[in-house]
Design a protein that fits this description.
Strands 1, 5, 6, 7, 8, 9, 14, 15 and 16 form a 9-stranded mixed beta sheet that branches. With 340 residues, this protein is an alpha+beta fold. Helix content is 24%, strand content 39%. It folds into 2 domains: 185 residues, Antithrombin, Chain I, domain 2, CATH 3.30.497.10; 123 residues, Alpha-1-antitrypsin, domain 1 (Roll), CATH 2.30.39. The longest helix is centred in the N-terminal third of the chain and has 14 residues. This is Serpin 1. It comes from Hexamita inflata. Belongs to the serpin family. InterPro entries: Serpin_dom (IPR023796), Serpin_fam (IPR000215), Serpin_sf (IPR036186), Serpin_sf_1 (IPR042178), Serpin_sf_2 (IPR042185).
Length: 340
Amino acid sequence: MLTLNKHAQKVTKFIDFTSKSTCYSPFSLMHALSILVKCSSDTSIKELVSKLEFDEQEMHKFSESMKKDSSVTLAANIFDSHIEKIAKDFEATMLKLFEFVPEKLVSAAQVNNWCAERTKNKIKEMVESIDGISTILISAIHFKAAWAVKFDPKLTVEKPFKGFKGASTVQMMHLEKKLHYGENKLVQIARLSYSNSGLQALIILPREQTPTAFNAALCEKNLKVALLEETTTLELPRFKIESYFNLKNTLESLGVSKIFNSVNCTKTLGDVLQVQDVIQKTFMEVNEEGTEAAAVTAIKMEKCVMRSSDKPKQMICDRPFWFLLINEMGGVVFASSVIE
């Protein structure tokens, strides 16, 4: 199982996807952590790699695949207040693997402008202040693509959506085409393609409407289910989600603790540092035209103090469902819970 997919399933225990619609990017976190892993090889990094079952080669291959996709913009950087201490061979490694040269950390505005530029202004602010911050390792991803088969806006109508906390009214899109579709006793699954993109949308609609069944639906069995081309009526609401996460507690719950005490980066960044916070902001919008999504993950560091038949199918997403963006390797790039 891909590292990203393992992580996407595990975090449903620690990130609340069922109180409100939430968008999380496993890929964005792992891409940022790929930089951190290159900063040191001490026991804190070994613990991180072990606890997250982090496969460095797999992540590099996945990232290279993403970079080749015309619908995706992927960027990374290191902002460091003591740029003169960074080792030249480490700079060369960053340029080769991540295509950036570290920059001197000057201001919060500098970091925020970098984020805004690389996410087409979808994520404009990641840090309020750089007080007490020595280094920021950062990853940004932006995706925008049109559906291969678009929804007709004339068929979009107001319909009720039965959320966990009650009903609401949504703008429900309608599509009746041959789609890649599958089902079992627990879920219905549909996959939609985009024009000029290797990424695809995977929609997982649990039959049972409880938070427990909802979280359980995000599993490898459903991610890998065989989908057949079926004449399918799909009703899917338009939605837009923006989310913020401080992932320190999530990582600690997954067994990662040592990086928050000490990471020996003396041979790369020139200091013994500790991770202060790991934060992520995300954006996703789905409408009749297609999908746009963005994520930024920032690792803030300070100096150490230490998922056939001929019968037409219907998939009516009028209750909570998962909307995933997966790439050609099958890895979860974005995982969104649509709850209201």
